[in-house]
């Protein structure tokens, strides 16, 4: 690698610029009265500085060492300063800027020297001041204005429709006959042979015989233009009876109105069909979401229903159980139902349950509680009297059937007294019990 040895500026150059170190400026010799402006950096050559690929590079070689590249720089002056700095580190004098005032103004601002109250301010020439002001006055080119919203891409050209339909079109009579044949069919199974004979192609797509695709003949109007564009799937081949009916009706409308159309062959040869459909799909508005209208309930509809007990069957429907708080707020009465898991012995030996509570109205008198007696059973569908049954000695003994609940209860006590047991329904009133049923006690 070869070093470049260039000429150095005139030794009678002006004093150091503002970015030159103050200490060096003080030690340097004073500038003469008449000075010339230094040459621009482009017209100078420096030792160890060369230009490669648009950048200034610095290569240096000391005695007994190989050539060493110090780096790349944006201008020749900065590269020359780096070369002199490398020489000063080895104790060698600078060769590119031996005197102050000969260095060009660098493009990048050098760090400011430390403030020293006793230091003499540097002296600059008028030419350097003008060059520095011109460098600072260069305006930065404004950034190109960007539009807020880019214009939408141009839509593809619509498909060409070179044909004109009429009642004399060859396909008009076929569509009329097939449409009439479809009216008597529930699907497309029964008309498959008729479609194949008229030039349609039916391709099976599923295990069921009713699942197949129908391809329109190449000389018929394009299925997508007539009906397929209105569907999200099967836009090129109908699969159901409604799709086929829509296509035949659309073809007959073209024949009646004399509209322009393209054939299936034209669609298959159209290279811009895919781009046109993609653009149409993006521009298609979504259908509005509609909520089902809820009919208001008549205010007296609830009152018209008959009030039934909780869980009672009304006809074939079962009313929904209501909460206890709702019953109380509505002023309805309720009664606690006994648990179905209790056995017969538990019902006889267990103490009488507390009377059912009902919502109390301050204006109505409190209801009289009905006493409950042991071993007494009320009438049901098969009997009309109160029956008794007392379990004693591993068996069941009946005290008879009675017209009232109190009579049945006293009969139970009489049976217990006859077997030398205590009365359970009227304790302390044994004399009245014996007088009422002397035959049981005897």
TrEMBL record:
Xref: InterPro entries: AP2/ERF_TF_ERF_subfamily
Region of interest called Disordered, as start-end residue ranges on this chain: 92-161, 263-374
Signal sequence range: none
Ranges of Low complexity composition bias in the record: 104-124
Domain of life of the source: Eukaryota
Family: Belongs to the AP2/ERF transcription factor family. ERF subfamily.
UniProt protein name: AP2/ERF domain-containing protein
Organism: Pelagomonas calceolata
Phylogenetic lineage: Eukaryota, Sar, Stramenopiles, Ochrophyta, Pelagophyceae
């Amino acid at each position: 690698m070869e070093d470049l040895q260039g000429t150095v500026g005139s030794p009678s150059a002006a004093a150091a610029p503002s970015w030159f170190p103050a200490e060096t400026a003080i030690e340097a010799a004073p500038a003469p009265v008449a000075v010339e402006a230094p040459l621009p950096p482009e017209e100078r050559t420096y030792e160890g500085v060369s230009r490669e690929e648009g950048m200034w590079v610095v290569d240096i070689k000391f005695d007994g060492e190989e050539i060493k590249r110090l780096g790349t720089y944006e201008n020749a002056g900065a590269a020359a300063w780096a070369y002199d700095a490398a020489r000063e580190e080895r104790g060698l004098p600078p060769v590119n800027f031996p005197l102050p005032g000969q260095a060009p103004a660098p493009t990048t601002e050098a760090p400011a020297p430390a403030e020293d109250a006793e230091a003499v301010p540097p002296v600059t020439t008028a030419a350097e001041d003008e060059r520095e002001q011109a460098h600072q006055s260069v305006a930065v080119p404004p950034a190109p204005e960007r539009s807020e919203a880019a214009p939408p891409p141009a839509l593809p050209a619509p498909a060409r429709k070179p044909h004109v339909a009429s009642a004399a079109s060859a396909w008009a009579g076929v569509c009329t006959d097939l449409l009439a044949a479809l009216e008597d069919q529930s699907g497309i199974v029964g008309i498959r042979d008729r479609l194949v004979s008229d030039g349609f192609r039916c391709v099976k797509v599923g295990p069921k015989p009713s699942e197949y695709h129908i391809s329109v003949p190449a000389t018929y109007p394009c299925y997508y233009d007539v009906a397929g564009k209105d569907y999200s799937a099967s836009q090129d081949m109908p699969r159901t009876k409604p799709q086929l009916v829509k296509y035949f009706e659309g073809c007959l409308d073209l024949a009646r109105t004399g509209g322009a159309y393209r054939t299936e062959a034209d669609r298959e040869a159209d290279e811009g069909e895919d781009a046109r459909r993609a653009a149409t799909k993006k521009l298609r508005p979504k259908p509005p979401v509609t909520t089902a209208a809820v009919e208001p309930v008549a205010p007296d509809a609830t009152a018209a229903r008959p009030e039934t007990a909780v869980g009672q069957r009304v006809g074939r429907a079962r009313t929904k159980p209501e909460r206890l708080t709702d019953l109380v707020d509505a002023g309805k009465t309720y009664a606690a139902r006994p648990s179905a898991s209790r056995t017969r012995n538990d019902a006889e030996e267990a103490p009488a349950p507390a009377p059912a509570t009902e919502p109390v109205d301050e204006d109505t008198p409190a209801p009289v509680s009905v006493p409950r007696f042991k071993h007494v059973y009320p009438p049901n569908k098969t009997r009309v009297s109160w029956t008794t049954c007392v379990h004693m000695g591993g068996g069941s003994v009946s005290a008879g059937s009675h017209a009232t609940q109190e009579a049945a209860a006293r009969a139970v006590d009489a049976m217990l007294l006859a077997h030398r047991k205590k009365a359970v329904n009227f304790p302390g009133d044994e004399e009245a019990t014996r007088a009422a049923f002397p035959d049981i006690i005897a």
